[in-house]
Amino acid sequence: PTGDEVVMIAGGTGLAPMRAQILELARREVQPPTYLFVGGHHPCDLYDLDTLSKLAVANKWLTVTPVTERAENPW
């Protein structure tokens, strides 16, 4: 990715290519501000959110925002 900012929106298996791009950005000398919106029906559907959140804490240029249709898990 190039430009001033990167915005990514993904859910389910669509997260895999976004995660790969984030890891590639992390290897660069300079990273653009990057915003990842991870979506799912329920919080339990947000794949690997813990790891993504840790990546965001460790990399100030990355913001991860979870988005769900429902606030509670179905069980």
TrEMBL record:
<dbReference type="InterPro" id="IPR001433">
    <property type="entry name" value="OxRdtase_FAD/NAD-bd"/>
</dbReference>
<dbReference type="Pfam" id="PF00175">
    <property type="entry name" value="NAD_binding_1"/>
</dbReference>
<protein>
    <submittedName>
        <fullName>Flavoprotein</fullName>
    </submittedName>
</protein>
<dbReference type="InterPro" id="IPR039261">
    <property type="entry name" value="FNR_nucleotide-bd"/>
</dbReference>
<dbReference type="InterPro" id="IPR050415">
    <property type="entry name" value="MRET"/>
</dbReference>
<feature type="domain" description="Oxidoreductase FAD/NAD(P)-binding">
    <location>
        <begin position="8"/>
        <end position="75"/>
    </location>
</feature>
<dbReference type="GO" id="GO:0016491">
    <property type="term" value="F:oxidoreductase activity"/>
</dbReference>
